[in-house]
Amino acid sequence: MPISWTAEFDTGIDVIDQQHRRIVDYINALEQANARGDRAAIGTTLDDLVDYTISHFAFEESLQDEAGYAYSKPHKKVHELFVRRVNEYVERHRLGDDVGAELDKLLSTWLVNHIKRDDADYVGAVKANMIGIIAEKKQKQGAGWFSRFFKRAA
Description:
Elements: H1 14-36, H2 39-67, H3 72-94, H4 100-153
Helix pairs in contact: 1-2, 1-4, 2-3, 2-4, 3-4
């Protein structure tokens, strides 16, 4: 059954939510390829899914590090273990095993749980950091305008 994106998956960080939606699209495409028995499409979709997910994880981890999220190292470890596990399925697929149904269940279950639990945990720290960066940037821009205005007036 395809994953339908619902508001309960939203983290409130638009860029992360967009990336999660794209991962859901890959998982759904993988399910469709599996239903058709299209091994070539399964392989291509798996490769794309793994590449995109690794990029997403790196981005997410960089946001956590920048925010000083206390559990960024354990979160990164969860990502590493997941990638290792999925790569085992990719290898099994390449060796001719029919891993489609197993992999679909793993991906769907893992992603939903990861977003709702692990990702939800870092949202507060990352959002606070993002708000701080935006406020600092606005302050610098505002101070620049304010200073320039009074320099001209003097």
